[in-house]
Design a protein that fits this description.
Radius of gyration: 24 Å
CATH topology of the largest domain: Ubiquitin-like (UB roll)
Helix content: 25-40%
Strand content: 5-15%
Number of strands: 9
Largest sheet: 5 strands, mixed
Order of helices and strands: EEHEHHEEHHHHEEHEEH
Distance between the termini: 47 Å
CATH superfamily of the largest domain: Beta-grasp domain
Structural class: alpha+beta
Strand order of the largest sheet: 2-1-5-3-4
Shape: globular
Number of domains: 2
């Protein structure tokens, strides 16, 4: 199945966390704590398909105000897909970015609202974090550091992707496969070194390349 995250189609399966789906699909969702319900940056608004997700968790009730929950806000690190269907979500970081670009005058009011909703849940959040030594949300230091490192790496990749998209540079995985002159699949590095045949019909690899690619199907007719 596919779900829509910030207008981007992402492949998902029943049982997946929204955060993991976003990470796999390079979706713009904050998760500085690596998805361990600490940083409160993975807030998302469920625009469609809320009934297909897991119920609100204890972690979410400890960090999300009643108003945010009523507006359809979830924590992507806690919400799991339980049923197939149409799901559309908008991350709060993406919503803030869109607001800054389209209506920056409303940004202070938005920031004040989110700050207030976090402030009124401050004591509940601290209490939840304090009792995490055991149980469902217990933290393992080594795994936590690993998750945080992965989150930072993903964030850096998102920045790189954004910069590359501005200049029209494709990700390596998006580069189309190059076909050799006789219809066989050809390696791009190999084809970069191909020399034109005297007869002009097809192209043939240089002797140096042929020695390293004895099984290459690039031939000259």
């Amino acid at each position: 199945m596919n779900i829509t995250i910030n207008n981007r189609e992402c492949s998902a399966q029943v049982g997946d966390r929204l955060l993991d789906v976003a990470r796999a699909g390079h979706g713009h969702i904050g998760y500085f704590c690596g998805g361990n319900a600490i940083c409160q940056t993975c807030y998302v608004r469920v625009l469609e398909g809320a009934e297909l997700l897991s119920p609100i968790s204890d972690a979410e009730r400890s960090m999300l105000s009643d108003k945010l929950i009523a507006e359809g806000t979830r924590m992507a690190c806690q919400a799991l897909i339980e049923k197939p269907g149409t799901i559309r979500i908008l991350s709060e970081v993406e919503a803030a970015k869109q607001l800054a670009l389209e209506n920056p005058l409303q940004l202070p009011a938005y920031m004040s609202k989110m700050g207030w909703e976090s402030a009124i849940k401050f004591t509940d959040t601290i209490a939840f974090q304090a009792r995490r030594e055991q149980g469902e949300h217990a933290l393992e230091p080594t795994q936590l550091l690993h998750d945080i490192a992965g989150a930072i790496g993903d964030a850096i990749q998102l920045v790189i992707d954004a910069i590359q998209s501005v200049f029209g540079v494709k990700r390596p995985a998006d580069k189309p496969e190059v076909k050799a002159g006789n219809g066989c699949s050809g390696d791009a590095t190999l084809l970069d070194k191909l020399l034109a045949c005297d007869n002009g019909h097809h192209r043939i690899a240089s002797p140096e390349v042929l020695l390293r690619n004895e099984e290459s199907c690039v031939t000259c007719n």
